[in-house]
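Problem 12. The chain below contains 206 residues. Write out its predicted structure in token notation.
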Amino acid sequence: MSGAIRERREAVHSALQPYLTPETLDAAVDYWEQHFAHAVGGTLHRFVTEVCRQAGLAEQRAEMLVALNAAINRTRPPATANETGASSEPLADEQQLRAFEVLFDRILAGIDPLNSEQLRTDLVVTLRGDRFPSTFLTRLRGWVLHRQALRPVVVPIAALGATVNQLYVLMAERIGPVASDQALHRAIHDLREQHGELAGHLADLL
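Solution.
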């Protein structure tokens, strides 16, 4: 086990400890290491959803996700960038970027306009420059706040998933976990129904 994986494993253990019994906690951490530790893209949603399903803790899913997100982020080193500002991680292709745009827009369309606009601002403020390529952050801010074009842009797949994850965390804090889950599930349903060709990329984002 690499040092980075060991550090993240300890972070997962610490974040979930208040919610799970010792036996369930050990099983959850092992499950994370086997299925999510090396995954590319956003996987915290899927991991927490599965843990909550098995432990019967659906009502605490958003709270657990916020805690896990914070713990994992503390273990992540700054992004390594090349001369173009792109991370050395696997990069998103055109379809993955399009899936990100559609999912993001559908999530915010599922809540009231006032909170939707505030979440746009909150997201831009909380995205840290040492975690994402600077070129992506610049384009993302313009797209989120001013509806400017996001594509083309060089960005790691993981950064797209992290952005969706951060949006969900902010949304859960602002409108609550139930409304947040409803908005997310409607967005996923709409993407699958209206943009079936992009549905295969949801696993990269959630």
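Discussion. The first helix runs from residue 3 to 16. Students who got a different answer should revisit the alignment rule from Section 12.3.
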